[in-house]
């Protein structure tokens, strides 16, 4: 008996050793292949920039990790430093073989890139060049006090005016296959540390299985989601700074900001917001929380015909749901003086186009009859998609549904409910080209909302 036990022990030890050696061999081979490719890219970029990095790594999910990356552009006395660059690939097989399917021109299941701890010196030469390029494009220079308005121009100048010397940000962009083979989900997120963060996702339908299909496809937008979350402390300091410059209190400053002329709104935003949007913007400014936008267009919407509609029709056309700090904005009216959809030059300005819209607007124009057909189809839907609040007692009915949960500590999580067991909700959230699971005890949920699509 003792001898058998010893043999079993030796067998287990041997299997562990073999497994360890195999794993180490795979890791070593992957490291060799990754380093070879990275060094080749560094050499290719040499005419434009010197690139150095500290270490390379990879994991079994197929991610490539490059730490302590520094880029020195040629002819510029400045540098961009990145704590970590992550390249997201379809998996370990992709790193080992280069993926035969990709070589055949097939579209990967997912790809992406993410930066952590990227640093931009706002007083450096690169920031100065960015401002010069923007000034040349706009035909104007940033004016003093631009940080205390609604303008989305000259962002680096605005941050400098608010006393920041450096921006540290995290950002990522990825795409992955959707629920069907013809769908692609594009995702982007960014965080400017101690200032703001945002997440964006768009699902397009109508692609084939090849890389070439992306270039020739005429996809339809299935859904768009966007969440913007300003940092409360930074927002408060900004309001105090701007109010102090005008010698008024914060409330008076904010009130005055939304009592400007239509011409000023057009210069700052590219459109004139109605009273509902103005109230929502004021709420977000005074009580920094979250702006949430969900767009689920009608199934018959042809994105190429959007420019044929009046701007005031867009909220219904796209099935927009907008919330600020958890409260839905019912009045989404706005105007764009000078935009006439009946004229060939009446396309919406880039300032208010949905991401990707400009590309499709440049394609062949659909006829007004097609636009009218789409309008009837959209208006015939029973109601727009919306979030509906549910009670804690209804959570068992939410398995498989898309929900948004606000917890009592002020955090918000969105995703698909995988299961509800013993008073705990398991959510699947998508981020950086993969999925992330989290658990939320029902007792900590202050508000639970489920997405109703019509």
Secondary-structure map:
Layout: H1 2-45, E1 49-52, E2 55-58, E3 63-73, E4 80-88, H2 92-97, H3 100-103, E5 110-121, H4 125-138, H5 155-161, E6 166-177, E7 183-192, E8 196-205, H6 211-216, E9 220-230, H7 232-246, H8 250-257, H9 262-269, E10 272-273, H10 275-286, E11 291-295, H11 314-318, E12 320-324, E13 327-328, E14 334-335, H12 357-361, H13 368-380, E15 386-390, E16 402-407, E17 412-421, E18 424-431, E19 434-441, E20 445-452
Antiparallel strand pairs: 1-3, 2-3, 3-4, 4-5, 5-6, 6-7, 7-8, 8-9, 9-11, 10-14, 11-12, 12-13, 15-20, 16-17, 16-20, 17-18, 18-19
Helix pairs in contact: 7-8
Description of the structure:
This protein has 454 residues and is α+β, with helices and mostly antiparallel strands. The chain is built from 13 helices and 20 strands. Strands 1, 2, 3, 4, 5, 6, 7, 8, 9, 11, 12 and 13 form a twelve-stranded antiparallel β-sheet that branches. The protein has a six-stranded antiparallel β-sheet with strand order 15-20-16-17-18-19, with no helix packed on it. Strands 10-14 form a two-stranded antiparallel sheet. Helix 7 crosses helix 8. The radius of gyration is 26 Å and the shape is globular. About 11% of the residues have low confidence.
Give a quick summary of the entry.
Helices cover 32% and strands 32% of the residues.
Defining traits:
454 residues; alpha+beta; SH3 type barrels; 12-stranded antiparallel sheet; 6-stranded antiparallel sheet; 32% helix; 32% strand; globular
Question: What's the helix count?
Answer: 13
Q: How big a fraction of the residues is strand? A: 25-35%
Instruction: Estimate the helix proportion, in percent.
Output: 25-40%
Average pLDDT value?
77
Largest sheet: 12 strands, antiparallel
The radius of gyration is 26 Å
- Spans of at least 5 consecutive residues whose pLDDT stays below 50 are 16-27, 342-368, 373-382
Based on Cα principal axes, name the global outline. globular
Our measurement of the CA-to-CA distance between the termini, rounded to an integer number of angstroms, reads 69 Å
Q: Give me the count of strands.
A: 20
What structural class is derived from the secondary structure elements? alpha+beta
């Amino acid at each position: 008996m003792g001898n058998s036990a010893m043999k079993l022990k030796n067998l287990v030890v041997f299997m562990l050793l073999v497994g360890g050696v195999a794993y180490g061999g795979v890791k070593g081979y992957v490291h060799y292949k990754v380093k070879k490719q990275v060094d080749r890219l560094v050499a290719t970029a040499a005419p434009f920039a010197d690139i150095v990095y500290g270490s390379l790594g990879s994991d079994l999910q197929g991610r490539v990790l490059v730490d302590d990356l520094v880029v020195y552009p040629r002819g510029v006395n400045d540098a961009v430093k990145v704590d970590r660059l992550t390249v997201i690939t379809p998996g370990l097989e992709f790193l080992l073989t280069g993926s035969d399917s990709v070589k055949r021109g097939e579209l990967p299941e997912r790809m992406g890139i993410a930066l952590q701890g990227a640093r931009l010196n706002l007083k450096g030469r690169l920031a100065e060049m960015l401002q010069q390029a923007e000034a040349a494009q706009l035909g104007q220079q940033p004016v003093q006090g631009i940080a205390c308005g609604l303008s989305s121009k000259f962002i680096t100048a605005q941050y400098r005016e608010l006393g920041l010397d450096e921006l540290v940000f995290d950002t990522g962009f990825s795409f992955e296959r959707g629920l069907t083979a013809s769908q692609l989900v594009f995702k982007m997120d960014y965080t400017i540390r101690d200032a703001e963060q945002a997440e964006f996702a768009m699902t397009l339908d109508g692609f084939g299985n090849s890389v070439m299909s992306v270039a020739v496809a005429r996809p339809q937008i299935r859904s768009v989601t966007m969440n913007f979350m300003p940092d409360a402390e930074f927002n408060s300091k900004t309001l105090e700074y701007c109010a102090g410059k005008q010698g008024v209190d914060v409330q008076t400053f904010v009130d005055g900001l939304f009592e400007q002329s239509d011409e000023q709104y057009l210069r700052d935003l590219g459109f004139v917001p109605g009273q509902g949007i103005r109230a929502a913007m004021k709420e977000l400014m005074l009580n920094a929380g979250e702006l949430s936008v969900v767009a689920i267009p009608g199934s018959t919407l042809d994105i190429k015909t959007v420019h044929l509609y009046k701007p005031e029709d867009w909220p219904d056309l796209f099935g927009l749901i907008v919330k600020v700090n958890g409260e839905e904005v019912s009045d989404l009216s706005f105007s764009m003086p000078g935009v006439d959809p009946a004229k060939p030059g009446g396309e919406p300005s880039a300032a208010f186009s949905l991401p990707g819209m400009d590309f499709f607007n440049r394609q062949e124009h659909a006829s007004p009859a097609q636009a009218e057909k789409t309008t009837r189809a959209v208006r015939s839907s029973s109601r727009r998609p919306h979030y509906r609040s549910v009670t804690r007692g209804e959570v068992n009915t939410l398995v498989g549904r898309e929900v948004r949960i606000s917890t009592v500590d002020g955090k918000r999580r969105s995703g698909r409910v995988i299961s509800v067991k013993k008073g705990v909700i398991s959510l699947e959230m998508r981020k950086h080209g993969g999925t992330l699971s989290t658990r939320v005890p029902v007792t900590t949920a202050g508000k639970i909302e489920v997405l109703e699509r019509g």
